[in-house]
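I would love for you to help me understand the pair of lines that follows before we discuss the fold together.
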Amino acid sequence: MKTLIALLSLFLLPVAQTQAAQSVYQSPADFVTQALGNQSKGQAKAKVFWFSAEQRQVIEEILAHDFRPLRTRYWQQGDDTVWILEEIGKEAPITVGIHVRHGQIYRTKVLIYRESRGDEVRHDFFTDQFKSATLTKDKQLDKHIDGITGATLSVRALTKLARIALYLDRQLSLQQNSEPR
């Protein structure tokens, strides 16, 4: 009987951990409202950023894997852009809100975390490292982000998403500056 219980726990425990692993820390809609201010509530409409082939290639280089989406949503108010992006940590997507102001990261927040480990990346002590980060010419962050033992893949995922948000913000700015007024 003890053997049967031990075997069942080996199979059922990972399933229970996987199902319980999703934690919602803030809804994407609430992050957007908070980022753009309460006066934008109900007014902040999502816009669509369509990727060119070249932009998709750059994103694939940042991610170091294939990137299939043709577009993403973003929100904009003045020089502020808000991006809700996802990247796989170890096995599951991590949903992150990134607020960019004047080409610098203003705020980064883990909105939904689905991994069984590594959720330390959701804490302010970690995400505050991204504040004021910009993108270098070679599409790297201009500041070092300290890792967290046991959360290496989650740290990498957030760092990649920060780079992508800054890249997309820059691309959006270039597009808007090239449009006739």
